[in-house]
């Protein structure tokens, strides 16, 4: 204690660690990750069905420290102690469950932050799958996933993931934004920026946008074709799904989807939305058994989603997508 109080101990990052200190810290870190990941990480820690949003978030948040295929890490960040590892090499040293735990919770004393929100394991799963592919990924493959565009171009903050046409680059985890309500798009961006909507991926983008940029993006995507087309006959429509959309399930206190989400309503338009995205979000809102307060506006959808029967999520998503 006296030695630490004296200030003689050199804590300068430029001095690095003694070899024994470096070994001990890494040994303790690996032991901690191994143990906690074994007991707390999900059994399905990686989701490789779509990597577009993970690639975009990696480019926005991770590449500055870790680098990426064809992209060198920042020399400023590499001057940290310890420097961020090259994941094209380092990722091979961890299991998927261990990568999930590191990404979700971060690692103390290393500069590795936790995931910005703790209630979006779906985002973490996609990032695990993305990091797992880094060792064999070429610069061209990385650039294609990131969807790099001219920073000066309109919608440059959005098009990498959502596409310049608002179709979400046909990625199953990306919503269709074209034709969405301007008010809903603007409210979503504002919610991500102030933290009332939960997404580490979107918060990182929205917090950097000015109010003018938010309005311009909302106006542009709302004016594109896409959602909310006039409904017509749906071949082989699921009658039970149609009933939930139009009438709800009164016995379960489940209101009709159309009461809030039909075109012209003040909430997001769902008609024509990607089925995989709708199903994914409903399952995410269902979450675990944590009690939610339905009186709070941000908790409305978790309450609604829990009242939808499990077996109806996919049929409901397909029905809404086909409208």
UniProtKB/TrEMBL annotation:
Record InterPro entries: Cyt_c-like_dom, Cyt_c-like_dom_sf, Cytochrome_c_Oxidase_Subunit
UniProt keyword terms in alphabetical order: Electron transport, Heme, Iron, Metal-binding, Transport
One Pfam family recorded for the sequence: Cytochrome_CBB3
Signal peptide: none
GO MF terms, alphabetically ordered: electron transfer activity; heme binding; metal ion binding
Residue ranges of every copy of the Cytochrome c domain listed in the record: 43-135, 142-225, 243-323
Highest taxon of the lineage: Eukaryota
UniProt record similarity statement: Belongs to the cytochrome c family.
Protein name, per record: Cytochrome c domain-containing protein
Annotated organism of origin: Diploscapter pachys
